[in-house]
Amino acid sequence: MAIGAAWTVPTITVAAAAPAFAASPRSIKVDVGPTGGKWTDNAGDGYIAQGVVITLTNSTGQSTISGAQLTIKVKDDNWQRPLANNYDTFWFVPDPKISSTVAQQRANQLQSVTLTTDANGQIRLNDGSASGYLRHGSDGRPVGTVFEVIQGGVIIGTFMLYNTSTGANRGTDPGVRPTAG
């Protein structure tokens, strides 16, 4: 190129497939409640792991999104079927009002639950009293359990809860006994 000649940016066109994991326009905030996300596995088999609230927001975290369906799932490598002595320590139930005894039946121990965000863009895994979807068992693991939050088949966030009476992440709260027992 001659000195003083105009310089232009070359245009390059590349045909490419869409990325397998496009950036999600949404994100989550998780409040693990009054227990700090830790329960004891010494008591409360089938009890409600209370206080977990998931809030769906836009990508900047500034606006909540109501009416959206989210699937909350125990991550595959944290889930074992059949649940031998509630090995994975956390599971979901199909009916938040069932008793702790019924919640322990394998037919009622679900790896995931799909719920809809409320007017505030939130999903509360329990109703603040003695009714809730998230239950815990008596064979905790100090390494914790990872949960995935999925929308439209895409994981938009993860969080971890603990159900153990040993180690640095031990909990002391047995959870909430369901009204049904």
Helix and strand pattern:
EEEEEHEEEEE
The total of helices stands at 1
Could you tell me the radius of gyration in angstroms? 22 Å
Structural class by sheet pairing and helices: mainly beta
Note the gap between the termini: 84 Å
The low-pLDDT segments are 5-23
Largest sheet: 5 strands, mixed
Query: β content, as a range?
Result: 25-35%
Mean pLDDT: 82
Q: In which range does the helix fraction lie?
A: under 10%
Lateral arrangement of strands in the main beta sheet = 2-10-9-4-6
What's the total count of β strands?
Answer: 10
Q: Outline, from the CA principal axes? A: globular
Features:
181 residues; mainly beta; three-stranded antiparallel β-sheet; 10 strands
Kindly summarize this structure in a few lines.
With 181 residues, the protein is mainly β. Helix content is 2%, strand content 28%.
Can you characterise this structure?
It is a single chain. By secondary structure, the protein is an all-beta fold. Helix content is 2%, strand content 28%. It has 1 helix and 10 strands. The protein has one helix at 100-103; strands spanning 26-31, 38-39, 53-58, 69-74, 90-92, 112-116, 122-124, 134-136, 145-151, 154-163. A hairpin with a 2-residue loop joins strand 9 and strand 10 (154-163). The longest helix is centred in the middle third of the chain and has 4 residues, at 100-103. Mean pLDDT is 82; it is low at 5-23.
